[in-house]
Amino acid sequence: MKILLTGATGFLGKHLLEILLNDERISSIDIVSRRKRTHPSAKAKTISIDLSDPSSVNDLTDDFNAVIHLAGLYDFRESLSNDYSQNVLPTLNLVEKLKEWNKKRSVPLYFASSYGVGFGIRAGVAEEPLIELPSKRVPYAYTKAIAERAITDAKIPGAIFRLGILVGSSKTGAIEKIDGPYALMKALQGYKSSRIAQTIPVIPIPAKRAGILPLVPVDVAAEVFHEAVFRNSGMSEPARIFGVYESTSVEISRFCEFIVAAFTPWAKPLYLEDVPSPALKVQEFLTGIPHQTFMFSLEPIDLRNERFVSEYSSFRIPHFDTYRNVFLKGFEDFSGGRF
Amino acid sequence: MISKVRKIVVLNLFREGPILNDAIEFGGLKFNLMEHRIGWDFETAERLVQKYDGYVDGIALSGVQKRATVGKLRWMNPAYLTLMRAAVKTPVYLADDVRDFFADWTLRKILKEQPQLFLGKKVLFQCAIISPYLKTIAEAGGRVFGADPLLVAGVPVLLRGVSQIQAFLGVVQALNRTKLGAMDPEGNIQKRRVRERFNEWVRESHIVVSFLNLLERMESLDALKGKILVVDALTDQARERLEKAGVAQVIEFVPDHPAISQLREKHFSVITALVDQKRLAEDSPLGFDEYTLKWLQEAQVRPSSLRSTRGIVRKCAFIIHPLSQSDIWKTPGLSFMSKASKNVRGFVEQAAALAPAFYYGRLKGVTSRSTGQELVCDIYALPATPKQLLAANEEFIYGRMIDCAAMAKKRGAALIGLGAYTKVIGDAGLTVSRRAPIPVTNGNSYSASTTLWAARVMIEKMGLIPPAKNGTRHRGRAMVIGATGSIGRVSALLVSLVVDDLVLVATRPDKLMELREEILELSPEVRVRVTTNPNPDLPGTDLVVTATSNQSGAILDIEAVKPGAVICDCSRPLDISAEDAAKRPDVLIIESGEVLLPGELDINVDIGLPKPAVYACLAETVLLTLEGRFESFSVSKQLSMEKVKEIYRIGVKHGAELSAIQGPNGVITDEQVQACRALAVERLKSWEPTKVRGEE
Question: What does the pLDDT look like over B386-395, one tens digit per residue?
Answer without folding.
Answer: 888 888 888 9
